[in-house]
Amino acid sequence: MKDIFSDIYDKVLSFFTAQNEDESKIVAKSRLRSVLMQDRVGFSERAMQMLKDDLLDSISRYLEINVDSFDLSIDATEDATILNLSIPVLRPKTDDEIDEALSIQEKVKIEKTEEIVGELEVLVKEKAQALAQSMAEEPKEEVKEENKEAKEEAKEEQEEKKEEVKTKTSQAVTDTVKAEKSEEVKKTKKKNTNNV
């Protein structure tokens, strides 16, 4: 009797052990294939992760997905590079959930814009203080030349930051307008449905 239970125990244990080894082999092969393809295509691991994060962020606004099973890979053939996605969808999100996600995203963009503006103001103050201090310490002719250079550098940095803020603000405004238009279309559809 003891031998029977021992045999059953060994068979059950070997079943689970073999399965885990097979799964480990599959995962290892998949990772190796992914690394080789990324190397062949010239797509870095960092860029791949950033793409995956962006796709997850975008898709999860509209669909509830199983993030753990999300798979992204790149294959290369002689003629083309192929992006493969496997996205297990749990359910589509409701319009209210989508609107809430877009609203949260808009708030985050506004906060980031305000943060950039604050950093820009601090940078300008620091440059102005450094410039004033250097003017007081150095001979006037040398100061004038360095002043020009510092002002030009400060202007360039300021212009770059302003352009960045403008771009982000413009995108935020565009996204807000799209969200408002989407809301108006929903309201119009509801009115039309109620009228029918």
Q: How are the elements arranged and paired?
A:
Elements: H1 2-41, H2 45-62, E1 63-65, E2 71-76, E3 81-86, E4 89-92, H3 95-137, H4 140-195
Antiparallel strand pairs: 1-4, 2-3
Strand residue content? 5-15%
Task: Trace the largest sheet across and list its strands.
Answer: 1-4
Order of helices and strands: HHEEEEHH
What structural class do helix, strand and pairing data support?
Answer: mainly alpha
Helix residue percentage:
over 70%
Q: What's the helix count?
A: 4
Would you write up a description of this structure?
The protein has 196 residues and is mainly α. The chain has two domains: 2-92, no CATH class; 95-195. The chain is 80% helix and 10% strand. The strands form two sheets. A two-stranded antiparallel ribbon has the order 1-4. The relative contact order is 0.06. The model has no long low-confidence stretch (mean pLDDT 78).
Question: What does this entry show, briefly?
Answer:
The chain is mainly alpha-helical. 80% of the residues lie in helices and 10% in strands.
Descriptors for this entry?
2 domains; 4 strands; 196 residues; mainly alpha; two-stranded antiparallel ribbon
